[in-house]
Amino acid sequence: MSVIGEVAGTLTRLRSEVAQLHAHLPAYGLVVWTAGNVSARVPGHDLMVIKPSGVAYDELTPANMVVCDLDGRVVDGEHAPSSDTEAQAYVYRELPHVGGVVHTHSPYAVAWAARGEAIPCVTTMCADEFGGPIPVGPFAIIGDDSIGRGIVETLRDSRSPAVLMQNHGVFTIGPNAKAAVKAAVMCEDVARTVHLARQLGEPIPIEQTYIDRLFDRYQNVYGQR
User: Which residues does the UniProt record annotate as the domain Class II aldolase/adducin N-terminal (predicted)?
Assistant: First the structure.
């Protein structure tokens, strides 16, 4: 039996999940037209499910999600995969704890990326979700694994699940695709709030000891267990 046959049930579930999660990106104002994407690792296999390139969000279905290996090669699907496939495949190869990757061009976060400036940790939400400032990764050209290398270089030793790739946009990671989507939503909200705060004056930084306490509470205590 082929690998695709072995994981047929898992692929059916992930194709449906990834297709549905894409709806959150335009709903939260994180993308326009066909920009951005969500991908998910296939657990236990060197495979990923990702959005097809250039397909409108209202045309996305489980059937047109694309299955690729972790070198970015299509192994199942009738469409060309996202132009970010090689970059995200690199992330999955290098960071085995990552189960989902999201890319957006959300406007406030991109404004910070265009300045090459990290978003400072001046709100409790930023401390909760990102454990400190949201970092900036290097400028990299789209189309190969260069962006993936920048993501991994920036996030490998960071608590943040988000990186602002300079002059480009937001990439987020998570233990699964839903968590990565959540991080993308939170990143844009933090970027907008801190931008607005700067229009009024200089935001007050949160002391590192409080950032650590907030991050620990949110990650390990908040919500249902």
Answer: 16-195
Taking the C-alpha atoms of residue 67 and residue 78, their distance in angstroms, rounded to an integer, is 10
What is the distance, to the nearest Å, from the Cα of residue 187 to the centroid of all Cα atoms in its chain?
Answer: 10
The answer to whether 92 is a known catalytic residue is no
Q: Is 222 a catalytic residue?
A: yes
Task: Scan for tokens 């037209």, then name that residue.
Answer: 33
CB atoms within 10 A of CB 114: 13
Q: At 129, which helix (H) or strand (E)?
A: helix 124-130
The CA distance from 138 to 167, in Å, is 9
Catalytic one of 69, 76, 84, 128: 128
Q: Which two tokens stand for residue 199?
A: 């229009």
| Cα–Cα distance measured from residue 142 to residue 146, given in angstroms and rounded to the nearest whole number | 7
pTM assigned to the model: 0.97
What domains can you pick out in the chain, each with its CATH number? 3-221 (3.40.225.10)
